Fold:
Amino acid sequence: MSQTATTAKPATAGQTAPFRMLHTMLRVLDLDKSLDFYVNKMGMKLLRRQDYPGGEFTLAFVGYGDEKDQAVIELTHNWGQKEPYTIGSGYGHIAIGVPDIYGLCETLQSAGVKIPRPPGPMKHGGSVIAFVEDPDGYKVELIEKK
Structure:
């Protein structure tokens, strides 16, 4: 008899110890613009990029460290996509810790990056945050980490 979501036992901490977050995937309209944002503006590294001609898509993985021990972002570019993707109401944001949020936001704004929420303290907390947008409109929260 197969277990269903309602009868399956939840995993315990001991069972999930080998689990690790690997990546978050975003569909992007223009891969070059997205790579420019994540690599040149946000300082990530292009870790790997692979074209899949049979499926007519390209995957590019970006991040701040090696995939063997860091979570990364997978940018998926479907070659035939002509219109921007709809982000939907369920998506929230990616969060990145940064040491100088004010300086980074000045640099990003000078580079043409949209900053819908300028840096400043959270309304109901002490963290200093900002929100920027990538070329597809995905929100990226910056959290100052000194």
